[in-house]
Amino acid sequence: MEVRLPGAWVIVSGKAVAGTHGSFTYQGDQAGSSCPSDPQRQCTSIAHADAYPEHVAPRAAVVEVPGGDRPAIIVDSRSVTEFEATLQEWPANGTPGVKARSWRELDLKAKREGHFTVYTLDPLDGRSAQLLTATAKFQGGNELTYYWRLQRAR
């Protein structure tokens, strides 16, 4: 069985940058076990991987952000049940950790557009490089984390 993880893009200044996949859990139908999201349905975890900021950061997608822009995150799915986005400063020497001191949760405004779910973020200051982490939970118990490196537009 092929597993297709939903894509996510940051849209800023008319440009779309695909997110780098991080940790994920994909549940699929299979006889013999119950789903945590729906005990009446039979399913099992088909695919799972842990990929934290320190693992993904070196290859995180890069987004150039002009100061004051309101970026959006678009997820290729209408089945998003929960969504969280966080920012943290990118250390001058090294890679970001799981929850650095600069970590903060972002306020989001969500809407559905066709097959997509769109989350508008508050304007970003663009002063220094930052790690944007977005975690989406989907119907059926699936979960996926995306990463981007945001840096000041040149």
Layout: helices, strands, pairs:
Layout: E1 8-12, E2 15-18, E3 20-34, E4 42-49, H1 53-56, E5 61-65, E6 72-75, E7 80-89, E8 104-105, E9 108-113, E10 116-121, E11 130-138, E12 143-152
Keywords:
Immunoglobulin-like, 3% helix, single chain, 12 strands, seven-stranded mixed sheet, 154 residues, mainly beta, five-stranded antiparallel sheet
Tally the helices: 1
pLDDT < 50 stretches: 30-34
The CATH architecture designation is: Sandwich
The number of E-state strands comes to: 12
CATH topology title: Immunoglobulin-like
Fraction of residues in helix: under 10%
Rg, Å, rounded? 16 Å
Strand content: over 45%
First and last CA, distance: 44 Å
Q: Would you tell me the overall average pLDDT?
A: 77
Classified by CATH, the class is: Mainly Beta
Structural class: mainly beta
* Helix-strand pattern: EEEEHEEEEEEEE
Major beta sheet summary = 7 strands, mixed
Tally of domains: 1
User: Quick one: overall form?
Assistant: globular
